[in-house]
Amino acid sequence: DTAVSQTPKYLVTQMGNDKSIKCEQNLGHDTMYWYKQDSKKFLKIMFSYNNKELIINETVPNRFSPKSPDKAHLNLHINSLELGDSAVYFCASSQRGAEETQYFGPGTRLLVL
Amino acid sequence: KQEVTQIPAALSVPEGENLVLNCSFTDSAIYNLQWFRQDPGKGLTSLLLIQSSQREQTSGRLNASLDKSSGRSTLYIAASQPGDSATYLCAEQTGANSKLTFGKGITLSVRP
Fold it and tell me: Is the pLDDT reported for residue A3 higher than 60?
């Protein structure tokens, strides 16, 4: 019944590794997002996809690559992980873009050692 | 530069008190203003969304207002309860399909 789900919930990995975080929404929404919440709890948009098309790409290192196989899924792949990538990553979705209410997933807590 | 500010960062009140959480934004070309709640270790839950053409929105004990001219929004919580303890974030959107810019949130603690 979960509207927006993310896996894994926790991710602990070594510097230099490559990892992926998956997100799925069963709300039938057209738009999906990735946000990063840092250690100071500041929440910032990273990417936004509408019907599998990238519409927002903030200043995010090339090591981060989103992939949307269909409009219900938006995955985040991170190459060559760095210590500063440690954060909580949230996926969200909305019906017609950010002007509609956004529904958030539970978050993925990434710790890079 | 588009900024959203929430002051104070933390607030503690006794149960039953009515309270107001403040949010200020720098971009007057606002499209909508949203209030979210975040519980520890959880994602965000949308509380209220105010379109730029609206002055306020209400849901139960919550009332959010928007004053574009002064660049301010407030979230009013009536008869606060311990279950209201959480972090409250406001976010501004300046156009259709544009990003949400979040404040850093206000962590509210309601004491029994």
Answer: yes
